[in-house]
Amino acid sequence: MGLSCMPAAVIDNVSGLVNQGQAGGVGLDTTRSVRRLGKVEFVGFLFFSYICSPLKCRVKREDVLPRDASLLMRPSGKNKKENNMDDETKDLDGRGPEEEVLEQDSHSDYKPADRFDASAVHHLSGMYKNWFLDYASYVILERAVPHIEDGLKPVQRRILHSMKRMDDGRYNKVANIVGHTMQFHPHGDASIGDALVQLGQKDLLIDTQGNWGNILTGDRAAAPRYIEARLSKFALETVFNPKTTEWQLSYDGRNKEPITLPVKFPLLLAQGAEGIAVGLSSKILPHNLNDICDAAVGCLRGEEFHLYPDFPTGGSIDVSKYNDGQRGGVLKVRARVEKLDSKTLVIREVPFTKTASSLQESITKAVEKGKLKIRKVEDMTASEVEIQLHLTPGTSSDKTIDALYAFTDCEINISPNCCVIEDNKPRFLTVSDVLRNSVEHTKALLKMELEIRKHELEEQLFYNSLERIFIEDRIYKERKFETARSLDEVVAFVDSKLEPYKKTFVREVTRDDILRLLEIRMQRILKFNKDKADELIQKIKAEIAEIDKDLGEMVRVTIEWFTHLKEKYGKDHLRRTEIKNFDTIVAAKVVDANEKLYIDRQAGFIGTGLKKAEFVQNCSDLDDVIIFYRDGKYKVIRIADKVFVGKGVLHVQVFKKNDKRTIYNVVYRDGKTGPYYIKRFNVTSITRDKEYDVTLGTPGSRICYFTANPNGEAELIKITLDPNPDRKKQNIFMERDFAGILIKGRAAKGNLLTKESIHRISLKSHGHSTLGGRKVWFDPDVKRLNYEEHGLFLGEFSDQDSILVVLKNGEFYITNIDSSNHYEDNILRIEKFVADKAWTAVIFDADNQGYPYLKRFHMEASKRHQNFVGDNPDSRMVLLTDAAFPRIQVTYGGADAARGTEEFDAEQFVGVKGFKAKGKRLTTWTVDKIEELEPLRFPEEDGKDDGNRKDGEEDAPAAAKQAAENLDPDAGKTQQQVIDEITGQLNLFTDE
């Protein structure tokens, strides 16, 4: 059964079924609503359509597919005899059979089958497969996927072609452009209008006027009758050339349209493209015009090049997994989030494919789920993005920024898929492959244009030479010329007179050339000037010689072409997206503690929903919990609303993976009557819901003493033994300092504490951390702190230490060592803060005629941004050093260059003051440069603490505090009194 007897609904349902069954869920043409049918319904519907075919259910082929797609389709039947039922053979648009006769140059010889031939056999089984392939091929080649040569989809190509035909330098109504384009595009005005708006919003090929929508806010463009457009200068220069364009007939055969436009630029990479076809999709990201030109020049020179996306919405990208734009790669895109102040964040740029509205919606949802602590979101986006986030009091702005990237659309992943049409087939390429192909195509087009120009000049040279000979030799005055009886005799005579010159001509002389000479008017002959004719001929020959030179050096010509495009249009297309390396954000580390953890020890439940039970600590719904039991077992589970963990729980806390600073101090007994062991360990990684054991696993083992220390503290404990009359030396007290116990793995046995029976273990004094200062590194690639030895080592930090950050604009501030801190890109110095360190700076003071001033000062411990350069934005810092005895050299220039150089001892020149002090002027002469020299003096070693204590060391105040602290519950009691208390003996006599 042919397509002509199938209603459009049948075709839609076939497509929907194929989409569901064979295409693996990949969407078809989204502009058509597809209703899916079951297999039984499908066969029944086809049969019903076939039975009811006489009831004017015929659908013309061009109503389903345009004629230019017929090359992809198979005829569904043979020609049958003409039906005499005129009313029923008319199409839905009312035209009769005689109006359907196509011209000889039509695109297809398709002819519908006769539905009323009873002898015809129609096989339904093959139609499903065949028509699906035809439809899929059409969607891939003619709708969704761009062509590699011009980077355009058919609708875009037809829009640009229509605009070129309409172009007169003035703006045209979009409605008029859409109507004109419908001569070439068979799919209606809506699809044309949407494609035109998308082209206009890319701000490259189309110069727009009016309300064309806003890609930042998601606002739609105004109606086509209200907005106007025209081709941009870039499009007119790079996209069109009728002499190098290949043409084909339009879908109805009335017009000609380009097969591909002769684009002399990698337009596909500049604009990007996205489309969903049948069984495949294409997603090519836009790139920067300047980067494309630079990469094209590098490609032509045989150099290595890299090309990364650039989005009109700005933001930043991580290209570490971009995979050159090939399928399988991932591009991370982030919004630009800045700190307006300590309580307010502002989003200045949004990720590509997102708008301010969608971003605000995702933030609101995260706030509602408790992932963010933001009290108010204000969207003030207009021509630029500005979304202000007002934080809840006490909320860390750095951690909130990380949470925005983890839980909202402030960070998204884009999966590129560079699929293009090449040789009428879809191909998956890399961005580099597309660029190389486009560069070679541009070079071929430039060569074709030169060859066409050369041919035109040769034709002009040929005719000018003929004309010069014809007039100078006065051939038209010859007697045979004047007395010739026919045109053939004249042509033969002129040809004979040109015979001596034919060897110098670029081609043979034809009859048409001679007839053209005979059309020269007498007025032109009378005005003929030999000198001017010779000058014109020489000029043409020179231009031909120049073209011949260019044709031999096409690489140079192509490089000059891309350089010209960059110089002419590059300043209007600056890069907006910054390329960075993103750090990995662990959601559990940045999520706010939006829940409270409780434990019901009697019932054996823990969770966030036990509001009346014992409070443990704040947590988030992404955290894990580690649980220690009295019998030595422990495990890690996910936080839930309510979960049964059993009785005998000794300790519960939020578990942090890879936490090496939380140390557990434990004393346990091996078995019911075994010895006691003491151990220190940490738990860095563990399998969730798997049970582990602190003890050796002997039945009856139990934990006698347990503490969890978040910074590796080691306390002093007092052990009281059970009295034993058989013991020769009755001493029931012993002390043990955990600082003397090495930290080992969780499976370690530990050290033997005693074999005697212990009555109780008590804390005598709190200890200090045995882990020493925490080593901190700064990664300049991601601008973050870390503890994994990535980047610049900043030193060992205690809880009281801070980090000093100095920016290139003269601002400075201090921060803690939290790995969630965010730092600016313009960092000049970042190091451990030392309060008494003297800094030396040279500043050109704009408030004092720009003279150089030298100042020495101390940085203050301020978390707010302070500036030692001054309030005038025109002042600038040229040198900053922390040398104890710096030497400064000033080199004079300009009118004072004869003064040479001058050295200054900064320590002797000016004293150390506050950072707001103006300093002392160095000179009033013209300065060429200022630089620091090697110091001649160095500070003496005084043995003072440098702030980096070694492991196990402690300062004197801490040691004194520990010595003074005594938490012994038996303090002031004698050993006998304690024994009597344990044994229950009544002491009638007091000790003297």
Question: Can you tag this structure with a few keywords?
Answer:
23% strand, 24 helices, elongated, five-stranded mixed beta sheet, 992 residues, Gyrase A, domain 2, Topoisomerase II, domain 5, alpha+beta
**How much helicity do the residues have?**
25-40%
Cα(first) to Cα(last) distance is 121 Å
Total beta-strand segments? 48
Major beta sheet summary: 5 strands, mixed
Poorly predicted spans? 1-108, 944-962
Name the overall outline: elongated
Individual helix count: 24
Question: Kindly state the mean pLDDT as a whole number?
Answer: 83
Q: How many structural domains in the coordinates?
A: 6
CA-atom Rg in angstroms? 43 Å
Q: Pairing-aware structural class of the strands and helices?
A: alpha+beta
> Which range does the strand content fall in?
15-25%
Family: Belongs to the type II topoisomerase GyrA/ParC subunit family.
Biased composition (Basic and acidic residues): 91-110, 936-952
Catalytic activity: ATP-dependent breakage, passage and rejoining of double-stranded DNA
Domain Topo IIA-type catalytic: 145-559
Describe this structure in words.
It comes from Prevotella denticola CRIS 18C-A. This is DNA gyrase/topoisomerase IV, A subunit. It catalyses: ATP-dependent breakage, passage and rejoining of double-stranded DNA. There is one protein chain. This protein is of the alpha+beta class. The chain has six domains: about 5-140, no CATH class; about 145-265, Topoisomerase II, domain 5; about 330-415, Gyrase A, domain 2, CATH 3.30.1360; about 445-570, Topoisomerase, domain 3 (Orthogonal Bundle), CATH 1.10.268; about 655-765, no CATH class; about 775-935, no CATH class. It contains 24 helices and 48 strands. The strands form 14 sheets. Strands 25, 26, 28, 31 and 32 form a five-stranded mixed beta sheet that branches. Helix 11 (about 290-300) runs antiparallel to helix 20 (about 555-570). The longest helix has about 40 residues, at about 430-470. Mean pLDDT is about 85; it is low at about 1-110 and about 945-960.
